């Protein structure tokens, strides 16, 4: 027998553990059996996913925060990262130095394979749910059919729910692949709350009263993925129509900026614009055409007529408040407004023109062909 044979046998013991009913637990148990060293898998938030022996104590926060050099011990433990689709999601820990580094690294690879397998199953469920939610939002299913399809995913449309919508500046692939809850993967159960990706945004449907708590957790996760994380929360509503309206309310709340925002007042006009965007109406193109003289003038001269117009409307057309908000003199504001009238051929003080300009500026932000996320994510077009 060569010196490599014992190592090969140990590798086979670990690989065979993945065929057990609880593969990750069996893997950690097998690694413990080969060395007698306490072994654990700890997620990056410090939660102990598996520990053998079960009563072993771990300095979880210190372990997951460490970046040890090869062979270096942390809190008396050897560490190896467990990765899922190239992203570290947990740490495999073994107390002492009894386990050969190559064997520990192999075990960490196997742990990543098991998490990837479970994540693929759960992602498939979420893809199906995402399709259902898209149909519900677009009104493409009858109330009865939508309620039935939602029921297949564990949601009772007859009970009150809140909708949470989150967005972040990160690649859609990363948003879809990042495992938010390893405990969900390990339990092989559905998410504790319905979660899907709709139009490259996270959508969660949660029971009444849970929206703000879940939104804060959602924001924490999104912040770890990229900048500009923001989350909107709807009011609690019942039924399929309530779910659809809650989605638009949460999207509207995103416009309030970074962080977590709860929907407060129903802005019907903005909600209708959002719904029109979702239905595929080219509001961004129509609005850009209406604002074309101002956009072109701003582009050529480095001015901010569109911004001025938007602020003027947001301040209920009050010159003093607008000038203060823009940090300009009232005469400067007056000259800008006069120029806007000259370029567009409209009287900015007439009710019909103000409605026109509000629809144009809001529709442009909502439906900009360059960035459909615009106001829905609280950002203006670049």
TrEMBL record:
> Which residue ranges does the record assign to the PucR C-terminal helix-turn-helix domain?
305-360
Q: Which residues form the signal peptide?
A: none
**Pfam families in the cross-refs:** GGDEF_2 (PF17853), HTH_30 (PF13556)
- The record places domain CdaR GGDEF-like at 139-254
Per the record, the similarity remark reads: Belongs to the CdaR family.
- The protein depicted here goes by the name CdaR family transcriptional regulator
Upper classification of the source organism reads: Bacteria, Bacillati, Actinomycetota, Actinomycetes, Mycobacteriales
């Amino acid at each position: 027998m060569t010196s490599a044979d014992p190592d090969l046998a140990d590798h086979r013991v670990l690989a065979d553990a993945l065929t057990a009913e609880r593969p990750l637990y069996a893997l950690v148990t097998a690694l413990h059996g080969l060395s007698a060293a306490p072994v654990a898998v700890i997620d990056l938030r410090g939660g102990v996913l598996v520990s053998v022996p079960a009563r072993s104590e771990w300095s979880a926060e210190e372990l997951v925060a460490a970046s040890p050099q090869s062979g270096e011990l942390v809190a008396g433990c050897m560490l190896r990262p467990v990765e899922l689709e190239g992203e570290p999601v947990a740490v495999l820990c073994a107390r002492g130095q009894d386990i050969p580094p190559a064997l520990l690294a192999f075990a960490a690879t196997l742990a990543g394979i098991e998490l990837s397998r479970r994540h693929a199953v759960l992602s498939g469920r979420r893809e199906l749910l995402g399709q259902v939610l898209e149909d519900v939002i677009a009104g493409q299913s009858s109330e009865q059919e939508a309620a039935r399809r939602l029921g297949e995913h564990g949601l009772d449309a007859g009970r009150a729910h809140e909708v949470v919508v989150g967005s972040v500046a990160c690649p859609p692939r990363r948003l879809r692949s990042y495992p938010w809850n390893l405990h969900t993967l390990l339990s092989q159960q559905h998410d504790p709350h319905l979660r899907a990706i709709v139009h490259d945004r996270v959508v969660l449907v949660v029971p009444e009263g849970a929206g703000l708590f879940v939104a804060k957790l959602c924001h924490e996760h999104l912040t770890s993925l990229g900048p500009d994380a923001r989350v909107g929360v709807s009011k609690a509503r019942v039924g399929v129509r309530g779910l659809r309206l809650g989605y638009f309310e949460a999207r509207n709340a995103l416009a309030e900026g970074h962080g977590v925002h709860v929907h407060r007042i129903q802005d019907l006009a903005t909600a209708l614009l959002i719904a029109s965007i979702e239905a595929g109406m080219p509001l961004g193109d129509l609005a850009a055409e209406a604002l074309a003289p101002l956009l072109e003038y701003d582009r050529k001269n480095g001015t901010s007529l569109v911004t001025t117009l938007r602020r003027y409307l947001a301040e209920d057309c009050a010159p003093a408040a607008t000038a203060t908000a823009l940090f300009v003199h009232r005469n400067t504001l007056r000259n800008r407004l006069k120029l806007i009238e000259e370029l567009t051929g409209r009287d900015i003080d007439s009710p019909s023109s103000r409605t026109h300009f509000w629809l144009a500026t809001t529709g442009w932000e909502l439906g900009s062909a360059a960035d459909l996320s615009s106001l829905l994510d609280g950002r203006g077009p670049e």
